[in-house]
Amino acid sequence: MPTGTIGGMTRRAAVPILMYHNIGAEKARSSGTCLNVPARDFARQMRLLARLGYRAVTFREAVIGLRGEGPLPPRPFCITLDDGFRCAADHALAVLRPLGWSPTVFVASDWLGCIYAPGGKPANETDRVMDAEELRSLVAQGWEIAGHTRSHALLGSLSDAAASDEIIGGADDLSTVIGERPSTFCYPGGSFNDRTPLLVREAGMHGACTTRSGLARAGMDLHLLPRIKPATRDGMAGFLYRFFVRPWLP
Fold first, then answer.
1. In whole angstroms, what is the distance from residue 40 CA to residue 32 CA?
2. What percent of the chain has pLDDT over 90?
3. What average pLDDT does the chain have?
4. Is the pLDDT score of 5 beyond 50?
5. CA distances from 81 to 35, 52, 93 (A)
6. Is residue 158 part of a domain?
């Protein structure tokens, strides 16, 4: 979808997709993953983008815009929250509601209401996934709830039949919970093989996020869209680099 020209060259629609897992000071300090950020940092990141004229769209809206079937605001971006942690949603809601912004939450349906601890990994209450009532409340406020399989399965290691069962089953479960079928998806753990994107498409998903780093642009495979990953210890300088500089480097 062309959006203008720069130096005679066509500039195509692009949507930065921010990737978060958990949000909260305790979680960010105690976790080794770069995808958990302190609540204060998340708030500063969002308010900065608002001051710079950016406007959040859901991942579903971004996919529609990137394929040229719907409008995007002048400076669109997405906020995605993987796994549906209650802690993340609580902090995000407090920041995003005053801005009028809605994120997309990718949820593995088997983990609703549970403390997410696959393989017996150490976990605490900040690892608790939202329950069905909480998901319905967020949908009523404009949030998008999207597919993430049933069990958070690493799809790249599964047979086609097993992967399809996870993808479709998770979507069916969420449809029962929130009253609408998810139309977008995220690969758990960033795991997929050459066949997985086709299976996601056949399951009725119009777009899917990976864990690959980069800027989502029109013309890309909508079922293999990259994201921008803010890190725990970035600070604002690191966030600005990831958002404004790194996606444009070779």
1. 18
2. 81
3. 91
4. no
5. 10, 22, 12
6. yes
Write the CATH number for 64.
3.20.20.370
Is residue 92 a part of any domain in this protein? Answer: yes
Answer yes or no: pTM beyond 0.70.
Answer: yes
In the chain, % helix, strand, coil (3-state, to 5) comes to 40, 20, 35
- What is the number of domains present in the chain? 1
Q: Is residue 4 part of a domain?
A: no
Taking the CA atoms of 135, 137, 139 and 143 in sequence, report the sign of the dihedral they define: negative
Does residue 3 surpass a pLDDT of 50?
A: no
16-72 tens-digit pLDDT = 999 999 998 555 445 545 668 999 999 999 999 999 999 999 999 999 999 999 999
Cβ proximity of 109 and 134 under 8 Å: no
Place of tokens 């290691």: 157
